[in-house]
């Protein structure tokens, strides 16, 4: 028996109240009816409790109100007397401007449907219809097929999962179309910073060609003649500041800051973000960890291989502009060096978490950073990308590559939507290089660095340290309402030895008033015992701060001019990215 569709109508006309009025209509299949709102959205591993934005939920059947019982914060049940169609009315506040939440104002709407779509028991695999009611002059951008035609603003999703995977953007926006290997793509930008009509396109008139080239480069990396999606929608929020993206099967929502765009390499990094999210249509959306197959929207799911999903994608995103013929080798090495530098300057990689633990603890650590996070965690994006680099170079020395492993997993699992376990991953690497069957699990479970310097040496690259100009204290300070305060205190540092705590007011050094961050560093002398006057809980204290030799401020990746011919040849092959 085909299941009747569930119809979700979202009225976006109360834009000044930032209120989305929702109506869910369906024919129940059980008299014991249950409604559940997801607590998270796939791709962003944090329990968001979208229910906190919901209000005025009521259930009607044949025009009569039916009492709902709240079983859990995001779960309601009702005992129905019959199986006639029902309507659920509710509203949701939409005031959070991120790629994974809802935002509605006079300028536009950006919706994450995990925050709005109630799952009806027995209807997860039923078709879901989506209808939008829009303010005058607005256009909808929805990566779903139309139910009837474009004028109706109604779309059809083949399941609840496809509905939740649908980002919705609407507003008086202009859009642009382009084709990648026969597949239609749409590009729509909402500029929060004004500009007519699209400041990014104005500054980079070749933008759409560049984006199409990056999309094509992703296909080449995957060894595919066309994208995995039957059509694709790019939504960009151009903000004053911001960086982020969320991947979907057939779409992505991106946020990028005009301040970042204006920096050297800012446009190249923007294209990396585009490539990162686009590559996810394979890695993580269709080639998906078994733990997310199917997705449990009700609670966090521990995924030990997020390092592969995000780290491998982060590694390749740096190569994609160059593979698309846009970037240069020098730009690529700059970006790789900056990423490795961030990694090497994060003590948490040696003190806090292994790569597997970082993946497993995503839900409670990566998205919940505090002043101490650098000491007790390492991002699975960052160490995952370093691991991908080490694996790629190890495999290339053996005549294979990381791209071969990725393609193999895609062909044997992702293409068929068969989830992969950690064992499948290790097997895929071991099939290319048997030594990795033992080495890879040890690297995933170790607090030490994978053999990074050896890997870089194999392609004639070296890491150059750049020391700080000021003596080291391990203290990071920032301007605060009262002047200057301690923002971070590094583990095993002079600041820690002095007894400083995050939040301390930094008042004076050797009797000299401190007012801004530079005031402290310019008075420090290596080995000297300074008296630092601080304020804590309303009382002054005098601490002894003894700085040490300047620490490494950053690392850069440089070509070793004396490297062997074999290393040079391997480097050329590695920079081609795509397997021969
Ligand atoms: Zn990602």
Secondary-structure map:
Elements: E1 6-11, E2 19-26, E3 32-36, E4 54-61, E5 64-66, E6 69-72, E7 75-79, E8 86-93, E9 103-104, E10 109-112, E11 119-120, E12 128-133, E13 139-141, E14 154-157, H1 160-164, E15 167-171, E16 175-180, E17 183-191, H2 199-203, H3 207-222, E18 232-239, E19 243-247, E20 251-257, H4 258-261, H5 266-279, H6 306-323, H7 329-344, H8 348-351, H9 355-360, H10 373-376, H11 380-397, H12 402-412, H13 422-432, H14 436-445, H15 452-457, E21 461-467, E22 475-480, E23 483-489, H16 494-498, E24 505-509, E25 512-513, H17 517-521, E26 530-536, E27 539-545, E28 552-559, H18 565-575
Parallel strand pairs: 1-12, 17-18, 18-20
Antiparallel strand pairs: 1-2, 2-8, 3-7, 3-11, 4-5, 4-8, 6-7, 9-10, 10-15, 12-14, 13-15, 16-17, 19-20, 21-28, 22-23, 24-25, 24-26, 26-27
Which ranges are low-confidence, i.e. pLDDT below 50, for 5 or more consecutive residues?
none
CATH architecture of the largest domain: Orthogonal Bundle
| Rg for CA atoms | 26 Å
Instruction: Classify the fold: give the CATH topology of the largest domain.
Output: Neutral Protease, domain 2
DSSP helix fraction: 25-40%
Q: Give the tally of β-strands.
A: 28
Count of domains: 4
The largest sheet, given as strand count, sense and whether it forms a barrel, is: 7 strands, mixed
Distance between the termini: 50 Å
Instruction: Give the CA-based shape.
Output: globular
Count of discrete alpha- or pi-helical segments spanning 4 or more residues: 18
What's the overall average pLDDT, rounded?
96
How much strand?
25-35%
**Reading side by side through the largest sheet, how are the strands ordered?**
5-4-8-2-1-12-14
